[in-house]
Design brief:
Elements (H helix, E strand, L loop, with lengths): L6 H19 L5 H19 L6 H33 L6 E6 L4 E2 L3 E7 L5 E7 L12 E5 L1 E5 L8 H8 L3 E7 L4 E4 L7 H6 L1 H11 L4 H11 L8 H9 L10 H14 L10 H18 L4 H19 L5 H15 L7 H22 L2 H5 L1 H28 L1 E3 L2 H24 L4 H26 L5 E3 L4 H23 L4
Parallel strand pairs: 4-7
Antiparallel strand pairs: 1-3, 1-5, 2-3, 3-4, 5-8, 6-7, 9-10
Helix pairs in contact: 1-3, 1-12, 2-3, 7-17, 8-17, 9-10, 9-11, 9-16, 10-11, 11-12, 12-13, 13-15, 13-18, 15-16, 15-18, 16-17
Amino acid sequence: MNWQNYPFVRLVIPFAFGMVGAHLFVSPQHRMLLFLLCCLALVGLVLLFFSRKGNRIRESVFGVVAMALAFLVGMTLYAEKLYQMDCGVPQDSTCCQGVLAEVPVEKTHSRALNLEQEDGTHLMLYVSKEDTAASLAVGDTIYASIRHLQPTSNGGGEFEEYRKFLFYHNICATCYAPTAWWRVHPRRGGPSLLQQLRSMQSRLHRIYDERGVEGEAGGIVEAMSIGRKATLTPTIRQAYAAAGVSHMLALSGFHVGIIVMFLQLFFLGRLLPQRWQWVSHLALIVILWSYALLAGWSPSLVRATCMFTLLLLCQFLSKDPLSINSCALTFLVMTCGNPFYVNDVGFQLSFVSVGCIALFVQTTAERSLFLQRNPCVAWLYSLFMVSLTCMVFSTPLVAYHFGRVPLLSLLGNLALTPFVYVIILGSIFWWAFLWCTPVNETLTGVLNWTAETMNGIVRSIADLPFSTLEWHPNGLFTFGCYLVLVPLFYYLTKKLRKLPQ
């Protein structure tokens, strides 16, 4: 591999290692020292840049210093995020205030209110179900006298994993407010655009429910179209996890890719003259980011939207979009905005899968003349290779995080992919023909039947013997697996490229 063709990859690797190092060894108090080291490395990089021409030793030193700077920047950003989370914990442990950032979530014995504070961090306030939390609107200001303030950075205890999950999702503390110990100040004026979009999922759910897309099938359709998974039952979640296809319930690159493919056909992006293609690409980018806001702004969806935005821009500027570089650039953009994305399981699996697909699948497919001349065979080949690559490279991470490996995920991906196409495209037409009752009712029947058939296939796969394998690798062993898998797949890909076309 010629690393000169992948400049962002060369930066992402030390940058990611810097974040991992900060996660393991750095405390928030080290952020100023790290910042000073970044400044020194930057000064050295600038000096070397103006004196490296014609000297190979200086060019090598320049590369080493650039990688060291990327490493230090990763550590600094992560340490700064840790400091921000520490400062977000209320100094007065008896009261708090914040703006309601999401629709209240109903728990077993309470309702959870996600409050955004002035510094951008969040609190999770739990209130009684008997209170009027259900009537709250996104954007309302909550003032509460609280009990049991618990910073999420404090590990240990029965809820350690849950606290870690909240901490890495920008929630710095949890607290409880008894009945009548909190009050609401309704938002002034109309809600902002972002607040309206955050509460839009509930409105879309009501429309789905009123038009007959409901029950278990409705939960699948909502998860794949608007990113709402609140109506998915624990049983169906467990079945999809056992079959190794739970990623199909989370909006990601696969779903966004289908939408982009359809929109490109709709906007005639491939047929327009070169000078007008920028209009089509700009419209696609605006629609994708609007959809990401509408569907909940999940890390996997944001990653996919960033990726396709860059790919659309690269397609307009160059015939070779360099998807590996686009993936690396997307990683940099997202983690600079929120360093805690690196701790999100979906984010990790998404980037591992997309990066390996771009590195090992796309390059071999593009070099095959037979596949280029046979689109149907190329689609089947891509479907099989993408499923196989995702299964192989996601297995160590899945085992590390969940302690089990779905052995039949390849079968599940191959069987369910056509149904995902039907649900996503059917949902687009369902909303487009909301005004036409006969067509809408027909599409409702199609969506319900497709989702029910998917659920039946998933249950059949999950019930097969040896569908899952218990495996609990530690972090070092998981990293070692990737040190073996990446060179092995690269060697095999290199051999495939040398085969006669």
